[in-house]
Amino acid sequence: MADALAGASRFETVPLGAYVPQAFWTVAVLFASEHGPYWEVGLAAGILYNWWMVRTKSLADCMLAHAVTNGLLSAYVLATGQWQYWL
To answer: Tens of pLDDT along 16-26?
Structure first.
């Protein structure tokens, strides 16, 4: 892991999916902040997506997971009329 972070001062040299605690938690908190009053759900999702990125090293997997999450939320909102989740 030390080799992966040796070039951390040049972010483009850090391998995709390398676990860097400060980056991991900063991204999770920023993801949470984009979800307004549902920040805790955003934080949980951000942590899960980050964990998946570290585990799989696949950006496509994370994009698919986010798309599936949004699709399931959309289906729920349309089926139940819980429109507050889209505001």
So the answer is: 999 999 999 99
Q: Is 46 in contact with 29 (CB distance < 8 Å)?
A: yes
User: Global pTM?
Assistant: 0.80
Task: Give Cβ neighbours of residue 40 (< 8 Å, ≥ 6 apart).
Answer: 32
Through-space distance between the first and last CA atoms of the chain, rounded to whole angstroms? 42
Count of residues for the chain? 87
Amino acid, single-letter form, for residue 34: E
Q: Residue 18 carries which DSSP code?
A: -
Alpha-carbon span 25 to 19, nearest angstrom: 10
Model confidence over 67-81: pLDDT tens digits?
Answer: 999 999 999 999 999
